[in-house]
Design a protein that fits this description.
Order of helices and strands of chain B: EEEHEEHEHHHHEHEHEEH
Number of helices of chain B: 9
Radius of gyration of chain B: 17 Å
Strand content of chain A: 15-25%
Largest interface: A-B, 32 and 32 residues
Helix content of chain B: 25-40%
Number of strands of chain A: 10
Shape of chain A: globular
Order of helices and strands of chain A: EEEHEEHEHHHHEHEHEEHH
Distance between the termini of chain A: 30 Å
Strand order of the largest sheet of chain B: 6-7-8-3-9-10
Oligomer: heterodimer
Number of helices of chain A: 10
Shape of chain B: globular
Largest sheet of chain B: 6 strands, mixed
Structural class of chain A: alpha/beta
Radius of gyration of chain A: 19 Å
Largest sheet of chain A: 6 strands, mixed
Distance between the termini of chain B: 37 Å
Helix content of chain A: 25-40%
Amino acid sequence: MLSCVDLHKSFDSVVALNGVALSFARGEVCAVIGPNGAGKTTLLNVLTGFIRADRGRCLLGTWDITALAPHRIALKGVSRTFQDLRLVKQLSVLDNVLLAFKPQMGESLWRALSRVGLSDQAAALRVRAAEVLSELRLSEHKHQPAGDLSYGQQKLLTIATCVATGANVLLLDEPFSGVDPGTRELVVKLIDTFRQKSKTVVFVEHDIDAVRRVADRVIAMSQGTVIADGAPEEILSRSEILESYL
Amino acid sequence: MTDGGPLLFVSGLIVGYEKKPVLNGVSLEVQAGEIVAIIGHNGAGKSTLLKSIFGLLAPWQGDIRIAEVPKKHHKPAALLRQGVAYVPQGNRVFGELTVKENLQIAASVVADQNLSREAFHRACNLFPVLPRRFSQRAATLSGGERQMLALAGAMITRPRLLLLDEPSLGLGPKLVGQALQTVSGIRSSTGAAILIVEQKVREVLTIADRTYVFRNGAVSYSGPADDLFDDAKLRSVFL
């Protein structure tokens, strides 16, 4: 579904990715773990076009997406969240979700001028957005500015925007950090739902209990390199992982 | 401050966003040199409290005093010069500036050049990774390194009251314990009182003297941090 070959990326003298080659299958839930500075977020940034690799290629199926802009990659069905959330904080919770839907038919010039079918379409999108917010238990906040939500609620909203895109590949940067136990359970269930819908989920995470619960596969990174890749029970019991990271 | 009085005194605080209240009459105290943890669910009002104390949100009702001086309408810049530092969630640093420039900006808050230099060196000793990255742009640091830079910047301002919003956010399992021990180290080396919001509940209890549990914008429990080491009690007040 999504893969990369021989990815290299350095920031000044710091090597963030050093020959990373990975492949993620349809319906797979894969956790990327490793100490701070291991290159985990850089990997997500390169896969989604936010950072250009110095060398290497990224593929979505057979499409080469290496040089595509982030919005082009998103339109091909790869959606992501960020550690620093990046919501439009002045807009309402509902509007943030509406913004995430793919460009609609009405956004063509002719449709916009003719107004044919626009109100039906807008109404349908609002219904769908309300469903997404309900799924994420954010309905009661839908008219509040996104910036007024707590951090944990904003984190849920970023996942809601990913859901709204209808993407088949979801890259989540630390979905469990900064959330309370109840929200944590909700995120666990959501990721399970993504798996049931055969979506590919790659998530960077430090919460190892959550990794054990939801991941089918764990990739451990250190200093820009993949040092282990396999089933959670195997990777999370290796002594070198335990010593260096846990 | 006056002998015996709390360094931070908050009474009957009501504040929110637009017309929706988030805190519904919160009262709490922090003594000089004390570490006080605030725990609670997402949306309980923990971060809103810190923003109010630091002058980023104007209280609707209630009283905020630092060393017995009312601070309800003070601006963040004035509070910073008076020894109150705030590290918000999400390791916010100046991404386009280098690590050293970020720390120099923090040091510029301290008027006395000798004290400023001393605070700068003390922070570099506490976070040895930072001097090694002096010339690197902060935006290219990892999440954990940016968090250290944010903490170091706050420490350099020589606060007597440090407000920390989830300093463990985004840190790997090993670093969470280290970061919280560093927070404890900041108290030991500077004598600052620390009011810390954390979701890593068990970890923060190991460094806190006292704890407040927030629920729906109000304090639902307060007491010595040690009391919540008992799992059953922690579950009853928090989960």
